[in-house]
Task: inverse folding
């Protein structure tokens, strides 16, 4: 028997947690689906087949899940876009300020060089 390394242990923990999450979502889906089928069955007329009711209820639940997921992703994408634009704006302002400071520094250096030799007199 070989000892389990830390990397393998972490991977197993991640796999277990993912499996638990999938099982939890499946159980919640089954419970909600069962309750919804009972509610729809009490409203619909009896001659409609049970498997058709189950199919339509499951379809509506899946569509609802995708609609909620779409809304969540839209919020994330909007926040990501806002962060991207704000970073771009900050970098643009930073570059502009750096350029202005550099041009001021160059102008002051040019003035110092030109003025340093203007007042010099030849020795007689």
Result:
């Amino acid at each position: 028997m070989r000892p389990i390394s830390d990397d393998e242990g972490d991977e197993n923990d991640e796999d277990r947690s993912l499996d638990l999450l999938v099982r939890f979502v499946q159980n919640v889906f089954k419970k909600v689906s069962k309750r919804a089928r009972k509610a729809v069955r009490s409203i619909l007329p009896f001659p409609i087949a049970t498997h058709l009711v189950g199919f339509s209820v499951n379809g509506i639940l899946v569509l609802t899940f995708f609609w909620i997921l779409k809304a969540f992703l839209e919020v994330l994408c909007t926040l990501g876009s806002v962060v991207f634009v704000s970073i771009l704006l900050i970098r643009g302002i930073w570059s502009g300020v750096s350029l202005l400071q550099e041009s001021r520094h160059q102008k002051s250096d040019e003035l110092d060089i030109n003025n340093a030799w203007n007042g010099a007199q030849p020795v007689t």
Remarks:
- The first helix runs from residue 6 to 43.
- The mean pLDDT is 83.
- The chain has two helices and no strands.
